[in-house]
């Protein structure tokens, strides 16, 4: 029997060996090691002691964690719909290739390439009391100044504004890509059927990108669940932890208070949530493309 | 350089799916062989097995007396021209041609000599510094052939190389390929589903169908003495007419056939005694049926569609019992749809097929 | 879609004039904070102390930018960011290309299983491994080093996924032709396949560079010594105790300075970045 030129040459594995090493050492092993840590009582000195699910019950009983969890849910519930709606609107508005629309696309995506540090710096200079852009405008208009960054309620809102500003580019680009997949003859057929522009949008455009809307929503949920830098740098979670997100809780538990086991447990809980969202994303993306109406 | 190719009892399976079943074939040096068949018949797979791009499940392949089916593709000494040409997009035509030679360590001077020679032969010397995107379809084709020629292979393998060209260019390239074969005198295997390419290029045609070889023969043998009903129906345009046989009487001169809607015909076909008229079929090509001039009486036919091709006229009609029949008449025939015509069948051009599709032809000629 | 001017274009809501006007309005809102930052950066700190509404008035000055030149710290951070981002980019390109080619073209034991596991890696957020990773890097003394900063990014499955897609898009006949040309597997990869993925390399490379340059999480945890900060972390650190010490103007100038490399890369390679983000997410 002949050996195929493609089949199972062990030497071929050399091509994936470098990446596989990186994958195992830097991702797979740390993942299991984190789970192991979350089941042990560990401090900086000496080996840990197995404590079962104690770390998890400690996390779940921690009012700070529960507050951070609520904050995160609230943040996701507000920022994701805003991002999806604004992104969809911009994609619809800019869905034509002219010099003007390309310029606007580039502009709306440009904030996405900035680092979180710059984004928060920009928005702090917008929000900070007295010196910020908004207080200056408020003063000119004779309005009562609001301290956005340190008023409970407003602080998470300010973080949300900065986040939407920062992340808007990706949903817009994904929607634009989807809109361009809609065959032009669908629109031509609709025009022959005397459909009004509004009906075309409702009955042709939106149904054609329904799957993308779902996917973008899930991608954004996954991303916004990992909120950290904006909150840490703009409000440091304050006031009274009302803008502290989950990831910041993990960071503070694991790297400020060095409660490694508890931090690991919290991080695995976050992983579980994100994994569920990723599963849904996988199911939607492998399902066959939507049937057109 | 040209070599013989021997394919012995080759079988190809993907899991439980058999794609080629016990294929044997020998090709002599300098022969131009065409694998002809409908898509999915395994002809491309067989070619790719010779090239080494598919492994052989069972059996043996030799090129020039050397067993090759255990060798990697590059060591078999064959060159292949792909349907998509598969030129390396980032290399110039010159680099495309030299790449393979560099791989086997041919001296620089020799490489230049061979490329110059091939470029002259193919008239692409002015294109050597271009990349494939900058070439027309026909030029790409030549570059791909050039890449094969410089390797001075023991055999050339062509995988439907003309199917991406437009009709006019295809005809011209066909001629040039025939000339190229005459000049190089190399063994060539050419895979196609186009019977015109097969008929015009081949020394011998291998007709393949349903995992097996149906017939191997010269174009004329294939056309005039198809071995099976499949070959008879696949080769020739319009396709051969098939008429159910009702009764067969053997006599000393051959066989008298009674076919549906036609009546009795005396043929020179000698059938084996075991031949059964059960499910047997009579086959005759459209050009072997003639339209009788008015007043003469023959087999009646009602014309349903008439296609005027200029040099000839194709009449699609029905016999009295409803059997469909295609008749080729000359270009001036004035029949029109609905006409009732009288036709005659050339008894010397009749083929009989048994229930298994095996063919029997008239003796003589 | 390029169509003739004369082609009939059905009337739709998308890209209609009113929508474009609203988008233009939004873009003004979008750019206002940036303009504010740039405005602050070209004002004298002392003037800003009296009231930031002076941004709307002359005089303007470049003194804050000149001051960056004198601040060795910012340059050190810039240098760290460059080393880490370039190193990580090269690493990701090499690892992803090799692995992507293998997944797309080669047969080896457990290929499918390994690919699925690697894809699963896409779903693992950094937070889920960060604590263990921090410990491991501690064992090997990798914290506060350039290598330590660039290594974690190399495990990203995104690049492998993207390169696998790109390699799969190359027609199989190309490598079959090379096989018949007696090229070794390595030579096929190096001379035929790799050159054909150059556009993909650019896409992945630019994307990785931006990602590494902007990374916040890992450098925050791993680089604890001030001289090992990346620009992102450095700016964050001066941000948390600004106001009194350095002033709004200087900080703003620093932020503009830190964004310049990214914006330049963005302006020149916008197409690649968009391909990377939309190709990676939708497919």
Automatic annotation (TrEMBL), chain B:
<feature type="domain" description="ABC transporter">
    <location>
        <begin position="5"/>
        <end position="235"/>
    </location>
</feature>
<keyword id="KW-0547">Nucleotide-binding</keyword>
<dbReference type="InterPro" id="IPR015855">
    <property type="entry name" value="ABC_transpr_MalK-like"/>
</dbReference>
<dbReference type="InterPro" id="IPR003593">
    <property type="entry name" value="AAA+_ATPase"/>
</dbReference>
<dbReference type="Pfam" id="PF00005">
    <property type="entry name" value="ABC_tran"/>
</dbReference>
<dbReference type="GO" id="GO:1990060">
    <property type="term" value="C:maltose transport complex"/>
</dbReference>
<dbReference type="InterPro" id="IPR013611">
    <property type="entry name" value="Transp-assoc_OB_typ2"/>
</dbReference>
<comment type="similarity">
    <text>Belongs to the ABC transporter superfamily.</text>
</comment>
<dbReference type="InterPro" id="IPR012340">
    <property type="entry name" value="NA-bd_OB-fold"/>
</dbReference>
<dbReference type="GO" id="GO:0055052">
    <property type="term" value="C:ATP-binding cassette (ABC) transporter complex, substrate-binding subunit-containing"/>
</dbReference>
<dbReference type="InterPro" id="IPR027417">
    <property type="entry name" value="P-loop_NTPase"/>
</dbReference>
<keyword id="KW-0067">ATP-binding</keyword>
<dbReference type="GO" id="GO:0016887">
    <property type="term" value="F:ATP hydrolysis activity"/>
</dbReference>
<dbReference type="InterPro" id="IPR003439">
    <property type="entry name" value="ABC_transporter-like_ATP-bd"/>
</dbReference>
<dbReference type="InterPro" id="IPR017871">
    <property type="entry name" value="ABC_transporter-like_CS"/>
</dbReference>
<dbReference type="InterPro" id="IPR008995">
    <property type="entry name" value="Mo/tungstate-bd_C_term_dom"/>
</dbReference>
<keyword id="KW-0813">Transport</keyword>
<dbReference type="GO" id="GO:0015423">
    <property type="term" value="F:ABC-type maltose transporter activity"/>
</dbReference>
<dbReference type="InterPro" id="IPR047641">
    <property type="entry name" value="ABC_transpr_MalK/UgpC-like"/>
</dbReference>
<dbReference type="GO" id="GO:0005524">
    <property type="term" value="F:ATP binding"/>
</dbReference>
<dbReference type="Pfam" id="PF08402">
    <property type="entry name" value="TOBE_2"/>
</dbReference>
<protein>
    <submittedName>
        <fullName>ABC transporter ATP-binding protein</fullName>
    </submittedName>
</protein>
TrEMBL record, chain C:
<protein>
    <recommendedName>
        <fullName>sn-glycerol-3-phosphate transport system permease protein UgpE</fullName>
    </recommendedName>
</protein>
<feature type="transmembrane region" description="Helical">
    <location>
        <begin position="146"/>
        <end position="167"/>
    </location>
</feature>
<keyword id="KW-1003">Cell membrane</keyword>
<dbReference type="GO" id="GO:0055085">
    <property type="term" value="P:transmembrane transport"/>
</dbReference>
<comment type="function">
    <text>Part of the ABC transporter complex UgpBAEC involved in sn-glycerol-3-phosphate (G3P) import. Probably responsible for the translocation of the substrate across the membrane.</text>
</comment>
<dbReference type="InterPro" id="IPR035906">
    <property type="entry name" value="MetI-like_sf"/>
</dbReference>
<dbReference type="InterPro" id="IPR000515">
    <property type="entry name" value="MetI-like"/>
</dbReference>
<keyword id="KW-0472">Membrane</keyword>
<feature type="transmembrane region" description="Helical">
    <location>
        <begin position="20"/>
        <end position="42"/>
    </location>
</feature>
<dbReference type="Pfam" id="PF00528">
    <property type="entry name" value="BPD_transp_1"/>
</dbReference>
<feature type="transmembrane region" description="Helical">
    <location>
        <begin position="188"/>
        <end position="210"/>
    </location>
</feature>
<keyword id="KW-0812">Transmembrane</keyword>
<comment type="similarity">
    <text>Belongs to the binding-protein-dependent transport system permease family.</text>
</comment>
<comment type="subunit">
    <text>The complex is composed of two ATP-binding proteins (UgpC), two transmembrane proteins (UgpA and UgpE) and a solute-binding protein (UgpB).</text>
</comment>
<keyword id="KW-0813">Transport</keyword>
<feature type="transmembrane region" description="Helical">
    <location>
        <begin position="248"/>
        <end position="269"/>
    </location>
</feature>
<feature type="transmembrane region" description="Helical">
    <location>
        <begin position="77"/>
        <end position="102"/>
    </location>
</feature>
<dbReference type="GO" id="GO:0005886">
    <property type="term" value="C:plasma membrane"/>
</dbReference>
<feature type="transmembrane region" description="Helical">
    <location>
        <begin position="114"/>
        <end position="134"/>
    </location>
</feature>
<keyword id="KW-0997">Cell inner membrane</keyword>
<feature type="domain" description="ABC transmembrane type-1">
    <location>
        <begin position="78"/>
        <end position="269"/>
    </location>
</feature>
<keyword id="KW-1133">Transmembrane helix</keyword>
């Amino acid at each position: 029997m002949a050996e195929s030129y493609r089949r199972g040459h062990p030497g071929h594995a050399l091509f994936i060996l470098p990446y596989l090493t990186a994958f195992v050492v830097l991702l797979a092993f740390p993942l299991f090691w984190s789970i192991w840590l979350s089941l042990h009582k560990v401090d900086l000195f000496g080996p840990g002691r197995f404590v079962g699910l104690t770390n998890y019950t400690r996390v779940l009983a921690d009012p700070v964690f529960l507050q951070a969890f609520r904050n995160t849910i609230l943040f996701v519930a507000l920022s994701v719909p805003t991002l999806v709606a604004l992104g969809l609107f911009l994609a619809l508005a800019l869905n034509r290739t002219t010099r003007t629309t390309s310029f606007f696309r580039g502009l709306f995506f440009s904030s996405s390439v900035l680092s979180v540090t710059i984004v928060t710096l920009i928005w702090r200079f917008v929000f900070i009391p007295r010196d910020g852009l908004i207080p200056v405008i408020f003063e000119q208009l004779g309005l009562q100044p609001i301290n956005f960054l340190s008023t409970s309620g407003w602080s998470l809102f300010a973080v949300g504004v900065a986040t939407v500003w920062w992340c808007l580019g990706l949903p817009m680009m994904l929607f634009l890509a989807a809109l361009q997949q809609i065959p032009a003859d669908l629109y031509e057929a609709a025009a022959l059927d005397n459909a009004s522009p509004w009906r075309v949008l409702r009955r042709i455009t939106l149904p054609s990108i329904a799957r993308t809307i779902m996917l973008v929503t899930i991608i954004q949920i996954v991303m916004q669940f990992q909120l950290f830098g904006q909150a840490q740098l703009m409000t440091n979670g304050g006031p009274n932890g009302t803008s502290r997100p989950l990831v910041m809780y993990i960071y503070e538990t694991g790297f400020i208070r060095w409660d490694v086991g508890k931090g690991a447990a919290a991080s695995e809980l976050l992983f579980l949530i994100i994994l569920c969202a990723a599963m849904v994303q996988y199911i939607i993306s492998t399902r066959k493309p939507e049937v057109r109406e | 350089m040209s070599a013989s190719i021997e394919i012995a009892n080759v079988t190809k399976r993907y899991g439980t799916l058999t794609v080629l079943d016990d294929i044997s074939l020998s090709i002599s040096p300098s022969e131009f062989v065409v694998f002809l068949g409908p898509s999915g018949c395994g002809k491309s797979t067989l070619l790719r097995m010779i090239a080494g791009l598919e492994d052989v499940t069972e059996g043996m392949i030799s090129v020039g007396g050397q067993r090759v089916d255990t060798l990697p593709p590059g060591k078999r000494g064959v060159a292949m021209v792909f349907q998509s040409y598969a030129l390396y997009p980032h290399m110039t035509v010159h680099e495309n041609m030299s790449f393979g030679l560099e791989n086997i360590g041919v001296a620089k001077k020799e490489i230049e000599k061979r490329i110059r020679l091939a470029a002259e032969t193919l008239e692409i010397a002015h294109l050597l510094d271009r990349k494939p995107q900058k070439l027309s379809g026909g030029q790409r084709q030549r570059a791909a052939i050039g890449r094969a020629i410089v390797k001075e292979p023991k055999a050339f393998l062509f995988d439907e190389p003309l199917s991406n060209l437009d009709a006019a260019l295809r005809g011209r390239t066909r001629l040039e390929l025939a000339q190229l074969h005459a000049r190089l005198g190399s063994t060539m295997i050419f895979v196609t589903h186009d019977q015109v390419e097969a008929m015009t290029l081949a020394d011998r045609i291998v007709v393949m169908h349903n995992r097996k070889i149906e017939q191997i023969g010269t174009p004329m043998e294939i056309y005039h003495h198809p071995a099976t009903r499949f070959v008879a129906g696949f080769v020739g345009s319009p396709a051969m007419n098939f008429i159910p046989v009702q009764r067969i009487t053997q006599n000393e001169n051959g066989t008298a056939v009674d076919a549906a809607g036609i009546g009795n015909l005396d043929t020179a076909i000698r059938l084996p005694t075991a031949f059964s008229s059960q499910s047997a079929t009579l086959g005759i090509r459209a050009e072997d049926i003639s339209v009788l001039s008015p007043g003469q009486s023959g087999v009646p036919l009602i014309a349903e569609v008439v296609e005027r091709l200029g040099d000839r006229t194709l009449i699609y009609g029905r016999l009295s019992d409803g059997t469909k029949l295609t008749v080729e008449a000359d270009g001036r025939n004035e029949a029109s749809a609905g006409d009732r015509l009288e036709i005659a069948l050339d008894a010397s051009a009749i083929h009989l097929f048994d229930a298994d599709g095996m063919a029997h032809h008239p003796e003589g000629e | 879609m390029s169509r003739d001017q004369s082609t009939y274009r059905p009337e739709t809501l998308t890209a209609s004039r009113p929508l474009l006007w609203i988008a233009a309005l939004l873009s003004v809102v979008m750019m206002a904070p940036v303009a504010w930052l740039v405005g602050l950066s070209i004002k004298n700190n002392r003037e800003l102390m009296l009231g930031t509404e002076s941004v709307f008035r002359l005089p303007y000055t470049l003194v804050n930018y000149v001051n960056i030149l004198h601040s060795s710290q910012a340059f050190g951070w810039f240098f760290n960011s460059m080393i880490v981002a370039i190193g990580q980019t090269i690493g990701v390109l090499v690892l992803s290309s090799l692995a992507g080619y293998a997944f797309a073209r080669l047969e080896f034991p457990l290929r499918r299983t390994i690919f699925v596991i690697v894809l699963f890696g896409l779903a693992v957020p950094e937070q889920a491994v960060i604590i263990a990773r921090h410990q491991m890097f501690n064992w090997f003394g990798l914290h506060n080093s350039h290598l330590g900063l660039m290594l974690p990014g190399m495990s990203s499955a995104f690049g492998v996924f993207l390169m696998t897609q790109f390699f799969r898009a190359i027609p199989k006949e190309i490598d079959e032709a090379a096989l018949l040309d007696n090229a070794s597997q390595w030579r096929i990869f190096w001379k035929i396949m790799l050159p054909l993925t150059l556009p993909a390399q650019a896409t992945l490379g630019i994307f990785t560079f931006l990602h590494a340059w902007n990374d916040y999480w890992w450098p925050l945890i791993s680089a604890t010594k001030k001289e090992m900060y990346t620009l992102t972390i450095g700016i964050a650190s001066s941000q948390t105790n600004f106001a009194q010490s350095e002033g709004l103007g200087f900080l703003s100038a620093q932020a503009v300075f830190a964004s310049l490399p990214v914006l330049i890369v963005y302006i020149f390679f916008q197409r690649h970045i968009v391909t990377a983000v939309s190709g990676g997410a939708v497919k």
